[in-house]
Amino acid sequence: MRYSALSLAWNALTGHRGWRPAWRDADPKDEYDIVIVGGGGHGLATAYYLAKEHGLRRVAVLEKSWIGSGNVGRNTTIVRSNYLLPENIRFYEFSMKLWERLEQDLNYNAMVSQRGVLNLYHSDAQRDAFARRGNAMRLGGVDAELLDREAVRRLYPFLDFDHARFPIQGGLLQRRGGTVRHDAVAWGYARGASDRGVDIVQNCEVTGIIVEGGRAAGVETTRGRIRAKKIGLAVAGNTSRLGEMAGLRLPIESHVLQAFVTEAVKPLIDGVITFGAGHFYVSQSDKGGLVFGGDLDGYGSYAARGNLPTVEDVCEGGMALMPMIGRLRILRSWGGIVDMSMDGSPIIDRTPVDGLYLNGGWCYGGFKATPASGWCFAHLLAKGEPHPAAAGFRLDRFATGHLLDEKGQGATPNLH
């Protein structure tokens, strides 16, 4: 069924009895050409582009829970391409362009809202760093504007300009950045992939990877053995666990990243704001709640829950930026497991195990990368060679020293 004003009107007149499920809840077959482990945004996008761009139909996506239950439904919905290094600029700008036409491509309302992303700076050194980043963005064909204090005040007069511990001096603005409805992205890609013949298998946890003669030949699951010519891993914070099943020790640590939603208030923040003197970022959802987050919890964990000191630190950052939010009540919070690479940049590459491919190490950038990640991973799986936009995201760069240290923190995943 194609969604349109006509189909909406027709179903309204017929009591909404004609809607079909958005995707098929398939039973697993014994064998596929390609198995994607992980039914989050990256796995579903990969399957969709394998079918749409490469004509591959014998594809399965295996999700251990239900579609949208992982990080794709547990994030702060921000999309942007305001990176510094050429490899990341090229990739995330490619992703931004895919976001801009995603709803038309999927025939699905993903609520893409290009409301602008503003990174505040609070010192001369930060201003210079943001000027460098903005110049790099513009050299890469990405929009960027360096704003002074008064320009920021005109955009957001409610910020604490006069009595702040860290006075706002200006900000770097990317107007094309914004937010996207996170679970709608999963549903849209699942629908698009299913319509093209991909099997989406829920409640199917992978418990082992079958390796025969040095080659990945299939997976063991809670719903039986499934053989495959190629296996793609797109499992976010569980990347290291799945890698171990194939005998791989990956340059990745798993950390918890918390996010929060407040009670609904009247329209207040029409864009995305990040606090430069701490780690705090905030936007407002269409339902009126403020959605915000901050630093990692700092310790390695596979548990999707965080600790109270990080909650306190995030709220302190919000109060330093906007004291007025102190009376708001937090309705809910959650923790997502993110796979932090040693240089803060992702990996899209084949592994030393023939037939096994890796999509991981997304750190903070997983959600915003979803369309480009799926496109590039599908290209790698279908053609056996990296897509030009992801050519720098090689697994062996940690051995050769060709690191993409975007933040300049070195091999400290808990700080990236």
Main pleated-sheet profile: 8 strands, mixed
Q: Tell me the total number of β-strands.
A: 18
Shape: globular
What is the CA–CA distance across the termini?
43 Å
Mean of pLDDT? 96
Overall helicity: 25-40%
Helix/strand-derived class? alpha/beta
Lay out the secondary structure.
Blueprint: H1 5-13, E1 31-37, H2 41-54, E2 59-62, E3 78-79, H3 86-100, H4 102-106, E4 117-121, H5 124-139, E5 145-148, H6 149-155, E6 170-174, E7 178-179, H7 182-195, E8 199-201, E9 206-212, E10 215-221, E11 224-233, H8 239-245, E12 252-264, E13 272-275, E14 280-284, E15 289-300, H9 308-321, E16 330-341, E17 347-350, E18 356-360, H10 370-383, H11 397-400
Parallel strand pairs: 1-2, 1-11, 2-8, 4-13, 11-18
Antiparallel strand pairs: 3-7, 4-6, 5-6, 9-10, 10-11, 12-15, 12-16, 13-14, 14-15, 17-18
Helix pairs in contact: 2-7, 2-10, 3-10
Provide the descriptors you would attach to this structure in a database record.
416 residues; alpha/beta
Describe this structure in words.
The structure is a single chain. This protein is an alpha/beta fold. Helix content is 29%, strand content 27%. The protein has eleven helices and 18 strands. The chain has helices at 5-13, 41-54, 86-100, 102-106, 124-139, 149-155, 182-195, 239-245, 308-321, 370-383, 397-400; strands at 31-37, 59-62, 78-79, 117-121, 145-148, 170-174, 178-179, 199-201, 206-212, 215-221, 224-233, 252-264, 272-275, 280-284, 289-300, 330-341, 347-350, 356-360. The strands form three sheets. Strands 1, 2, 8, 9, 10, 11, 17 and 18 form an eight-stranded mixed beta sheet that branches. It has an eight-stranded mixed beta sheet with strand order 5-6-4-13-14-15-12-16. It has a two-stranded antiparallel sheet with strand order 3-7. A hairpin with a 2-residue loop joins β10 (215-221) and β11. α2 packs parallel to α7 (182-195) and α3 (86-100) packs across α10.
